[in-house]
Amino acid sequence: MEFQFLNTIIVCFLALLHFSRNQQSRCATYTMYQKFIGSLHDDRAKPLWEIERESVQSAKYLCVRRCEKDHRCVGIEICTIRPDLSRCRGCCEWYVIDKDGGLPRNATDGCKYFDLSKDGVESRGIRLSANSNVSAVASSTYVHYDTPLLASNVLDGIYGIHCGTSKTYSSVGETNPWIEVTWSGTITIQRIVIYNRADCCGNRLVDLNVTYTNNGVTGICGFYPGLLSRHGDIILIYCPLEAHATSVKLQIQSKPGQLNELNLCEVEIYKKS
Ligand SMILES: *[C@@H]1O[C@H](CO)[C@@H](O)[C@H](O)[C@H]1NC(C)=O
Ligand SMILES: *[C@@H]1O[C@H](CO)[C@@H](O)[C@H](O)[C@H]1NC(C)=O
Ligand SMILES: *[C@@H]1O[C@H](CO)[C@@H](O)[C@H](O)[C@H]1NC(C)=O
């Protein structure tokens, strides 16, 4: 605990040193906590941007400033590459939380990861409520024995250990399967939370293109390659600020000649608060 506390102070103190007098109070609302020692792994996170500098301090300082201005940024990874080279990356276009909430093992690769408090991140978005008339349609529906695994299962509020096969959405095996979630009115999407299938088959979630639509105009929130997707994973997708939308589409971009099954437990849409 003491170690974590110390690291929190360091980030805040460095920011303070560089902020001009009238900005100092901002530090109090922008505290980061050390979450783990080690780097963000390619298969679990896609950084937003990176900054390289000759010292850890200046990389950290620039990263904190940039993160503060980027509404998608929920954390920073700081690495000492060489004694005279440090790298800092903002997290993330997408980020995967293991079903057991497991953090990466503390590694000795010269990196540390800090993030904003859970409250700080969660207060940025408000979940679309049931009276937003949220609905889902999909490219196809797989029938498991006599039970169709319906698109509406991604909106039933059931995920994790309670998400048995019959509570899952599944497409048939096809090219570029998709599911689209629509609501009434235009919102600015803050994040999309995707709960991977939980009873099996987690590795089917690959090459997922997450796009949004507003009056026929399409934009991209993120692309999740899913190299090591596991059942029960939770994938957070942070959309760009311009993501004003009336619907979101999740589509597997099948490789040539390949058929895919899109399997999900739940999809949650959060609007910017
Ligand atoms: C990694 O280190 C941090 C801080 O020292 C500690 O709180 C955390 O529990 C460790 N995580 C693992 C997975 O060992
Ligand atoms: C709710 O959504 C459905 C399907 O998109 C649509 O047919 C219906 O008119 C909507 N109702 C309201 C109150 O917006
Ligand atoms: C994702 O979908 C968008 C819109 O259809 C498309 O322009 C883009 O190329 C797709 N991305 C990938 C990686 O397939």
TrEMBL record:
Keyword annotations of the record:
Signal
Specify the domain of life of the species encoding this protein: Eukaryota
Signal peptide interval:
1-22
Q: Matching Pfam families, A to Z?
A: F5_F8_type_C_2 (PF22633)
Q: What is this protein called?
A: Fucolectin tachylectin-4 pentraxin-1 domain-containing protein
